[in-house]
Design brief:
A hairpin with a 2-residue loop joins strand 14 and strand 15 (284-290). The chain folds into two domains: 3-257, Jelly Rolls (Sandwich), CATH 2.60.120.260; 260-370. It contains four helices and 21 strands. 8% of the residues lie in helices and 41% in strands. The strands form four sheets. Strands 1-3-4-12-6-9 form a six-stranded antiparallel β-sheet. The longest helix is centred in the N-terminal third of the chain and has 13 residues, at 3-15. It has 373 residues and is mainly β.
């Protein structure tokens, strides 16, 4: 790139109002994986934070979504889809895609729903064993706007850089709240119900046929051992794809923790303390988990309490107790603190006695808090 072109691009970015914090996506260098580094291709499953797979009516597909160390220069990780059992054919009503949901209030800089609506440019690095035409779509949830486009993978198993610009939506506003503002979808398979309307980088009223409009290549999930990888995704205001905005791991983790937080013990931390509180009655207690960052909404609680060999335990003044149930006390909880009621399977409390919820001597014991869109 020439110096003149670089200065022109910088001027475009300045005009669009963002020299920093340009990227509207979170964890798009695929650094953070609080849930773990591998998951099955079940609709709704996350592996890498903020990215999940979505599918409809698939009959046979088995595979994995993983954090992979294969990445283009300047990146350490990618998100990788690998097919082990294929979907033999894509029916008209079937689809499969990778997506990130963006919180509505983070999209206000786009000025959608006004004459000042800004264009949006998405750029990314992509690699697949399958060449051909794949679709990308943006969907605005508040008022059902859809824009779609395609990119072509030209060389198998080779990292390629792609950019697509979408025209800003002057007709449909995005609410200024903590709800779902936009889907950013990377399609890997789409039946004719969802890909038959030609691509159009301008937002229109939603229809099923526009969801993956123009998508052709379904081979990732219909070919045994096929792979598809992506990293360095940037979604930014304006018609210019700027260099990827790298963020530190700690910055990216904090952004992810607004939507999901997990504490888990390791083999060297089998007495990990999750949180503290006090006894309430002989068989129960309340403990208080302080969230490291404000969560999007009051989170739901999951734990290893029901996992064989991963039972949490309570220590009260040095006395170990078994836990039979953990429940969130919603009325006492907030986006800053979750209050958890404990019920014991062994041992007893004294009302007012200091208590601690810990890993109970187990590696892999965990608490997780989910406020995903």
């Amino acid at each position: 790139m020439s110096k003149a072109r670089g200065l022109a691009d910088l001027g475009n970015v300045y005009d669009d109002g963002a020299l920093s914090n340009r990227n509207l996506l979170i964890n798009s260098a695929m650094q953070v994986a609080q849930r773990g580094t591998s998951a099955t291709l079940t609709s709704g499953n996350f592996t890498l934070d903020r990215f999940k797979v979505q599918s409809s009516l698939l009959d046979n597909l088995v595979g994995t979504m993983t954090q992979d160390s294969d990445a283009p220069d300047g990146f350490a990780n990618s998100l990788k889809i690998t097919t082990t059992t294929v979907e033999t054919a894509i029916a008209a009503d079937e689809y499969f895609y990778v997506t990130q949901f963006i919180e509505a209030q983070n999209l206000q800089r786009l000025s959608f729903g006004s004459s000042a609506a800004k264009d949006i440019t998405v750029s990314f690095w992509i690699k697949s064993t399958q060449t051909g035409v794949f679709a990308v779509s943006l969907y605005t949830a508040d008022n059902a706007g859809i824009a779609n486009s395609t990119y072509t993978i030209s060389s198998a198993s080779t990292w390629e850089y792609k950019t697509i610009t979408f025209t800003g939506d002057t007709a449909r506003a995005i609410n200024n709240d903590n709800g779902l503002g936009m889907y950013v979808n990377f399609h890997l398979a789409a039946g004719t119900n969802f890909n038959s309307d030609p691509t159009d980088e301008a937002f229109e009223a939603y229809s099923d046929a526009k969801w993956a409009g123009g998508h052709v290549q379904n081979g990732v999930i219909t070919t045994a051992s096929a792979t598809w990888q992506i990293t360095g995704i940037q979604l930014e205001a304006g018609d210019t794809a700027t260099p990827f905005e790298h963020r530190s791991y700690s910055d990216e983790l904090a952004r992810c923790q607004r939507y999901f937080q997990k504490q888990i013990s390791t083999s060297s931390e089998t007495s990990l303390s999750f949180c503290r509180g006090q006894g309430f009655a002989s068989g129960s207690a309340y403990v208080y988990f302080e969230h490291p960052v404000e969560m999007r909404t009051k989170p739901s609680l999951s734990s290893s309490i029901a996992s064989v060999g991963n039972l949490g335990a309570l220590a009260a003044n040095g006395g170990g107790m078994g836990i039979s149930a953990l429940t969130t006390v919603s009325a006492w909880s907030s986006v800053y603190t979750t209050v958890i009621s404990l019920t014991v399977s062994s041992g007893t409390f004294t009302a007012g006695q200091a208590t601690e919820l810990d890993a109970g001597g187990n590696s892999g014991a965990f608490l997780s808090f989910d406020a995903e869109l």
